[in-house]
């Protein structure tokens, strides 16, 4: 017996959420209703938004004020097409490393710049890697989601955190250079470290989803679903061989995708394209979005790559200005955009 799909929870700032949900479902099924899924946002006439928040403020500032400003800004925005109003509560790319014991350091000139301080000197002594339940940032994150869900329910959604998991997590706690050497010198330790990293993901997903009431209200992180949706990635993959990617990273990504249900995979930087064959043949990574790094996206320059991805039965996410989108839409297979 087929399980009946859960109806979308109504959203005040997205009155056509049911129509948008139908298009998202068609997108995941590889079908086209009458056009590709699109995200369009614009200022709402007669409303004024509020200042946004940065990583530092979300990690240490007034949670209630941040939430109220997010609601004000969402109310002042038109969400056209399949765009969905949501706010992001992330503390930074290495926040998961912080939840398992790393210290976050902050840039002097920007509250949106931070990084983790690697703490693993000896893998054997560091095991097991796991979320520290009494970690102040972890506890704050869960409370942040609980408060935000209470205030935004029925109005907008909460995006999940920055999911730099699997080998990105190991790079954050060991340091990229030392991790590269470990892959060659002690691969058996990396096997164990990846087992721990993969065990962290289900707990992380469950606890954040429950705190944010996402099963009840809906999921958003670049894509929408009542079942589960998120953007996955492994930026560290630009530093490893295709063989290493298939051994350690790809199984973790496919496992994460199975848990999340609906996934956009984020390719960050030209170096990650060495793994394009593995990613396009992967299970569960439904759509791919490419960020070239070092000067913006300019997706119009990468249409041949997008065509190759589509031939691998994947969907591509295109970013651009209105005139660029008009050109790009004509080039790839519109059923897979």
Secondary-structure-derived class: alpha/beta
Main β-sheet: number of strands, strand sense, barrel status?
Answer: 4 strands, parallel
Q: If helices are DSSP runs of H or I spanning 4 or more residues, what is the number of helices?
A: 14
Distance between the terminal alpha carbons, to the nearest Å?
31 Å
Report the C-alpha radius of gyration, rounded. Answer: 20 Å
Domain count: the total is 1
Low-confidence stretches: none
Percent helix, as a range, is 40-55%
Globular, elongated, flat, extended or rod-shaped: what is the shape? Answer: globular
How many strands?
A: 12
Write down the overall mean pLDDT: 89
- Strand content bin: 5-15%
The CATH topology assignment is TIM Barrel
Question: Short summary of the structure?
Answer:
The protein has 337 residues and is α/β, with parallel strands linked by helices.
């Amino acid at each position: 017996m087929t399980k009946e799909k859960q109806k979308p929870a109504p959203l005040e700032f997205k009155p056509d959420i049911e129509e948008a949900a139908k298009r998202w479902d068609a997108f995941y099924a590889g079908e086209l209703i009458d056009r590709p899924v699109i995200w369009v946002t614009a200022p709402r006439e007669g409303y004024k938004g509020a200042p946004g928040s940065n990583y530092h403020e979300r990690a240490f500032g007034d949670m209630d004020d941040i939430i109220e400003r997010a609601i004000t800004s969402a109310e002042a925005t038109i969400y056209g097409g399949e765009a969905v109003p949501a706010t992001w509560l992330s503390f930074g790319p290495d926040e998961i490393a912080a939840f398992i014991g790393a210290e976050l350091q902050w840039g002097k000139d920007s509250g949106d710049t931070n990084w983790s301080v690697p703490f693993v000197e000896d893998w054997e002594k560091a095991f097991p890697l796991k979320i520290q339940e009494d970690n102040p940032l972890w506890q704050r994150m869960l409370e942040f989601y609980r408060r935000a869900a209470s205030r935004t329910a029925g109005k907008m959604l909460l995006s999940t955190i920055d999911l730099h998991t699997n080998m990105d997590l190991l790079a954050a706690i060991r340091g990229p250079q030392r991790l590269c050497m470990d892959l060659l010198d002690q691969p058996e330790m990396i096997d164990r470290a990846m087992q721990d990293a993969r065990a962290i993901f289900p707990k992380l997903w469950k606890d954040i989803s429950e705190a944010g009431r996402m099963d009840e209200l809906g999921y958003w992180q670049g894509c929408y679903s009542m079942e589960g949706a998120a953007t996955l990635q492994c930026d560290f993959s630009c530093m490893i061989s295709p063989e290493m990617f298939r051994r350690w990273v790809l199984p973790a990504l496919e496992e994460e995708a199975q848990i999340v249900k609906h996934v956009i995979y984020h390719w960050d930087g030209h170096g990650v394209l060495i793994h394009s064959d593995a990613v396009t043949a992967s299970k569960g990574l439904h759509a791919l979005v490419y960020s070239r790094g070092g000067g913006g996206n300019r997706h119009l320059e990468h249409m041949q790559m997008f065509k190759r991805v589509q031939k691998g039965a994947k969907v591509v996410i295109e970013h651009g200005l209105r005139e660029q989108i008009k050109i790009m839409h004509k080039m790839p297979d519109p059923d897979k955009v």
